[in-house]
Design brief:
Layout: H1 2-21, H2 28-35, H3 38-51, H4 57-89, H5 105-129, E1 137-141, E2 144-148, E3 153-159, E4 162-167, E5 171-175, H6 179-186, E6 190-194, E7 197-200, E8 206-207, E9 211-214, E10 217-220, H7 226-230
Helix pairs in contact: 1-2, 1-5, 3-4, 3-5
Length: 233
């Protein structure tokens, strides 16, 4: 369903851009063809800008400039090829020159930014409304592979170098993965309540001042994590 809605966003976006392009002298189907040429640039912008790292600010700015220039040059070339292809197919009233807007970097950048930004916020909204089911977790216990849906894991307990994954149905699995690593894997569905305990938020049945309950199991809440845990009440 979510994938269909995302596809619908891009279809509607291209249709809107195509309507704008009809004002440049293109017929609607021609404008639709030209409008689809914005898709590669918008998708590339979404993909590559997520990869830019600004820990080194100078490097981040430089990479951003390279990405912008690369996308704009590629888009202009796409529009040139598409325009002259359409004109070769048009038997009557051909346009000799490509509309200036389609070679204007500012116009192209505005359209690409609108498409990519709109897609980002639309998909974020969909994720909030319809969160994806988390993928099952695979780990090794007693030298055997174990795969568990996240919702079946109740909590993870650390005891020195051994962690125990406690699951529904009275099951438990010994493991050597540190609890800090489990915390990174299981976020945001789990919350740390103690240096030795990581708990599935959905499995919590009650929270007291210093105690958290999962069914009849009582787990201690340490002072370090108390504020975060109490915020769940």
């Amino acid at each position: 369903m979510k994938r269909l809605l995302v596809i619908s966003y891009w279809v509607v976006s291209v249709l809107l851009v195509s309507i704008v392009l009809t004002s440049l002298g293109y017929r609607f189907l021609e404008a639709l063809f030209v409008g689809t040429m914005f898709l590669p640039g918008a998708l590339a912008a979404r993909y590559f800008f997520q990869k830019v790292d600004f820990k080194d600010r100078r490097s981040g700015i430089r990479n951003t400039i390279y990405i912008v220039l690369g996308i704009l040059i590629a888009e202009v070339l796409l529009f040139l090829v598409t325009h002259y292809y359409i004109m070769n197919l048009r038997a009557d009233q051909p346009m000799n020159d490509i509309p200036r807007l389609l070679t204007n970097p500012a116009f192209i950048a505005i359209i690409l930014t609108a498409l990519a930004t709109g897609s980002h916020f639309f998909e974020a909204w969909l994720e909030r409304k319809h969160p994806a089911a988390p993928a099952p977790i695979t780990f090794t216990s007693e030298r055997k592979p174990v795969t568990l849906p996240i919702e079946e894991i109740l909590y993870v307990e650390s005891n020195d170098d051994i962690t125990t994954v406690v699951a529904t149905g009275g099951r438990s699995f010994r493991n050597i993965t540190p609890i800090s690593r489990w915390e990174a894997i299981l976020k945001p569905h789990f919350i740390r309540i103690h240096r030795s305990y990581l708990v599935n938020k959905a499995a919590i049945t009650d929270i007291d001042v210093d105690i958290l309950l999962i069914g009849e199991t009582q787990l201690p809440i340490s002072r370090k994590y108390k504020d975060d845990v109490l915020a769940l009440r």
